[in-house]
Specification:
Elements lengths: L1 E5 L3 H14 L4 E5 L2 H10 L5 E5 L7 H12 L4 E4 L2 H7 L2 H4 L6 E3 L8 H19 L5 E3 L5 E5 L13 E6 L2 E6 L7 H9 L4 E5 L2 H19 L5 H20 L4 H14 L1
Parallel strand pairs: 1-2, 1-3, 3-4, 4-5
Antiparallel strand pairs: 6-9, 7-10, 8-9, 8-10
Helix pairs in contact: 2-3, 8-9, 8-10, 9-10
Length: 267
Amino acid sequence: MKILAISENSAELEQLSRILRNQFKDVEVILARTKEEAMDHASVNGPFGFFALDVEAKDYDPDELGKDLIEFTGQRPLVFIGQQSFINDRITQELYQSNEYNESILKPFEREDFKDDLLNKVGSALNFAKQEEFAASIQDIQPEEFIPMKIKGFYLYKSFPYDIYMEIVRGKYIKILSADKPYTINTLVTYAKKNVKWLHIKKDDQLAYLEEETKKCIKAIKKAPPKSEDTILVALRSITLIHQSLLAIGVTPDVLNLTGLLAETII
């Protein structure tokens, strides 16, 4: 299980991390000092059980960052760290009450009961994470239920009409982008730097139909006699399917294959 802790104060981050690592042996604590680092970790190194957020930072808005993290990753507890006045002034009630497991830990870190308070509050958030077990994020799905697309194909869009998944190991996938939610090229670049070359789209009835019909056309073109009436009919059907597929999801391996065969047939 992973925890993402965000703060501009390196000393406090290290102290927080040390306490959590010593107490929870199966927990990995990942540290971020800026908003950009936090969002990069959320996109690449998750899923996270909860987020620990220093509300006294000067270079980012903790309320905005908290909302961005939740929007990007889905519901996760937030543990707000700071003096009570900062929590009151910089965290909206909307965000504070967005999850029943949200907690606040008051500074200074030097107070005698800080460790006990931290472990108590964090324990509540960890209970949530253990109950969830990230069932909504990591799924055991047969590869046949997905359509693969090269990651560079998603650079053309600002959002995508289907949920996008990344394969972690064979048969295990994590959803990294939600349908119709805006994303940036930087998000894709971050995955590309991790040597992710393919992303996966889970089929619905329409995509399953397009894939099946595309494969039928591929077989039919290979079997049809050159310049025959059957070839012309298959070519017309292929053009329609290619157009429908491009409108629905873009360029897939089957679409590329069919397009190449069609070009050879026409020439």
